[in-house]
Every structure is written in structure tokens, then in C-alpha cells.
Amino acid sequence: MRAALRGELLDRLYGRDEPAWDAWVTGLSAAERDELESVLDVYLRELDGRDAEKLAGLGRALGINERARREIAAGDYWDRSHALVWLTLLRDAPDRDLLRAHCTETPRERAAAARVLYAARTDDCATTGVDLLLRDDPDPFSVFGVDTLYRVAEGNPSPFFERAAADFPTWPPALQRQALLVVRHLTTVVGGADLSWVVAALSSADPSVRAAAWRALGAYGWNRRLRDAIDLDAIPDEPAPAVRADAYRALGVWGDATALGAIEAAGTVDPDPRAQVAAAETLVAQRGPDAVPAPSDPPQHSAGVAGDQSADAVADPSAPDPETPAPAVPPFDVAWDWAAEHTRFDRLARDISRDRDRLRDEVRG
User: Fold this and answer.
1) Is the pTM of this model over 0.85?
2) How many CA atoms lie less than 13 Å away from 332 in the CB half-sphere?
3) Helix 107-120 and helix 77-89: axis angle, to 10°?
């Protein structure tokens, strides 16, 4: 049965000017209609463009659209989810009030409802889509939900930025991170959107949100107004080493003299080795592994230790202090050497990969 239905479907889709779906479906048995829905489900996931538009007519002939609307209005969670999948495949957006009334109970339903609007390319995809996703104290989304939020905001980011500017402080940290991830990838379409809430996220009580804010801001080095609102001198005061590391990476993406100067000022004396490595990797990427690292001051001794030194040691700084170990290599020099060595190795590996065929021929020849 499936083979016969598939053959007839493809013949009507590609072999005729008009597929005449209604006439075909009318003559099918209940079992054939059920099987045809399964075949249609497969092809709607594989095809796009004009072919998908033609196949949507078969969905209407089978009554899938209207059945999906009834399931949204009167079904349970699984009925609604199944109905939303079908409407997305058929690019058929239902009445918006129906979606608002029945499809905002869970993050999955919110994402699925907004995805219908995106698939159908409705004029209100951004406004209604953002409203469905982010209204009424939303919970964090799955990866599909974050992707849907990005897609509905990409064409018209204003509704998303306006909602975030108003509600961002009330969202849980996980959702805040997801919103900042979307911002990170909307760089080319933001226009004059209000991004003050992204800068404010640098002061969040949650370090993961502060880190996500830096990662988002790394993509906006071109936005002078936004950059002027960021206090680069406050980076050394950031208590979380991982957040400082993300700050160095973000400034490295900006890549201008001001940003690199801020990395040198904070990163070369950062007390955390991993953060120092992040700063070194960023500077090496900008200046090359053969550049000379910025000098780093050795750790200062505490006042108590200095007070125990003899007068002769103070008078003669070159005299060795038996209680003080020999000075080690400055920590940032170690981080720089590590980053430079990895960069050189990466270049060597790429050179070998590029010349692999030539080297193989030379060895064989």
C-alpha cells in the first residue's frame, strides 16, 4: 500500500500540471488515508519551496489542518504537540488567539507555537513569536527553543530587544544566558536596538550570566556607543576568573589598540593561571607568537615580610634573602610561552596538512 501511494503521490506532484489532491483523497479508504499521512510526513520533512507548497494542498485535502486546530483547542499536551508539528510542516499558522490560549503552558509548546509562525513566514512572526516565547514569566528553553527565538528575532529584532530590556532582570539565570546567546548571533541586524541591558548583565550576581554577557559583547566591537558604556578598568575587580577569561576573549575579538591595552593591563597581572592563559592566547592571536610579551610585575611582598628584612638587605637590594626563594619565571611569561607554542604547533600542523599530498609524492618519488 505504501509503495503504491508513494508512486501515485510523486506522479501527481511532478507528472501533472494540477495534482488534484481532493479528487484522489476522496477515493481512498481509511487505511489508505492513514498510510498516506505517514508518506506525506516524510516528504514534507525532505522537500522545500514550491514542492512543499504543493504538498501542503494534500494536507488540506486530508483534513490535517482543521484536525490540528481542533486538537490544539481540545487536546492534551501530546495532542497539541502533534498538531503543532503538522501545522509547521504544512506552513499553516492558526489563529493567534488559539496559540496564546492553549500553547504557552510549557517552554516546548511556546517554541513549537512560535515555530509555526516562522515556518509560515507570517508578517507578525517577530512580534507574536517573541510574545509567545517570552510572555508571562517564561522558563528556560531547550536548544530548539533557543534556535526558534533566534529565528523569529532575526528578521525583526526590535520586539526581542524591547522585551529583554523590560523583563531581563526578572528572568532566571538560565533564560538570561539563552537570551544573551541569541544577542551574540544577532550582530548584523540589531540596528539601533537598546543593548543597555546586555551591559547591565555584566553586573549580574550570577557569574555565568556575566560570562555570557561578555561573550555576547565580543561580537559588538563595531558599536562605539555600546563600548563606551563598558568600564574596561573594572575587569581586574571581577571576582570570577572564568568571567575575566571571557572578558579577555571578547576584547580580543574587538582587536583594536584600546581593547588590547585593556587585556595587557589586566591579563598580564591576573592572579589566576587559566585567566592568564586566556589573555596570552588572545594577545598571541593578535600579534603573533614571535611578539614580545608585555612585562609583568612580580608579586609584591606583604608589609609584614618587608618589615622583617634586615637593614643591610634593604640597603643592598642585590643581597640574597635566605628566607625568600629565588624568583620564579613571571607567571604571564609562562602563559605567553604556552600560548605561543600552541600557536606555532597549530601553524605547523596546518602547513603539514596543506602540503600532505606534495610530501607524499616526494616520499614515493
Assistant:
1) no
2) 23
3) 20
Work out whether the CA dihedral 220, 224, 225, 229 comes out positive or negative: positive
Contact by Cβ (8 Å): 37, 62: yes
Give the span between the Cα atoms of 22 and 60, in whole angstroms: 9
Please state whether 324 falls in left (phi above 0), alpha (psi between -120 and 50) or beta: beta
Cβ 116 vs Cβ 84: under 8 Å? yes
Cα–Cα distance for residue pair 221/250, rounded to 1 Å: 9
pLDDT in tens, 115-169: 999 999 999 999 999 999 999 999 999 999 999 999 999 989 999 999 999 999 9
Q: How many residues does the chain have?
A: 365
Residues 214 and 202: their CA atoms lie apart, in Å, by 7
Gap between the Cα atoms of 190 and 228, Å rounded: 17
Amino acid at 70: R
DSSP 111: H
Residues 116 and 127: their CA atoms lie apart, in Å, by 13
Helix/strand/coil for 269:
coil
Please check whether residue 163 is in contact with residue 134, taking contact to mean a CB–CB distance below 8 angstroms. Answer: yes
The DSSP code for 324 is S
